[in-house]
Design brief:
five-stranded mixed beta sheet; alpha/beta
């Protein structure tokens, strides 16, 4: 069963990137090309990340949850990227701490009211070491869609109506 928040074109597995800017370029261009986000979306992501880092240290490897103001988003979507090698992100809510990230869950939400609830749901989910391990082992976009539908979206559907 497909979910309106997911699009397999926004799922990138085992990518080889050097920094979070490259991640934002890849995910952001996918969002823009599909019409889910405005042309300024990537700038919005980078701008927000520089002011409010989105890295979360969890076991066994850090996760980043980049997002930006709802005004950059046309249609709510969630993008996902797993990385071959970790990339440093600033730690959410700290001043200058870094975390090595191998999973990125992009929240592209067009309603700012649901943003915080969705963020809380994702943070809750990534506390699960088994979910993180499952994410790192994904090999196909279909596997990713199934995992996200079963684990993440059941939590989010109540929040993002």
């Amino acid at each position: 069963m497909s979910n309106p928040l997911l699009d397999k074109d926004l799922i990138f597995l085992n990518k080889d990137v050097k920094n979070y800017e490259e991640i934002f370029e890849l995910l952001g261009h996918a969002m823009i090309e599909k019409g889910y986000a405005k042309d300024t979306y990537i700038h919005g992501l980078k701008d927000r990340e520089s002011q409010y880092p989105t890295g979360v240290p969890v076991n066994p490897i850090g996760v980043a949850i980049p997002h930006t103001d709802a005004s950059y988003v046309n249609e709510s979507k969630i993008g996902v990227m797993t990385l071959k090698e970790s990339v440093p992100f600033g730690v959410m809510g700290t001043d200058g701490e870094q975390v090595d990230v191998r999973i990125v869950i992009l929240l592209g939400l067009s309603d700012s009211g649901t943003h915080l609830k969705a963020l809380q749901s994702v943070i809750e989910l990534i506390q699960s070491e088994s979910f993180i391990r499952d994410m790192l082992e994904l090999e196909t976009q279909e596997d990713a869609l199934n995992l996200l539908n079963n684990q993440l979206l059941s939590k989010l559907e109540e929040e993002v109506k």
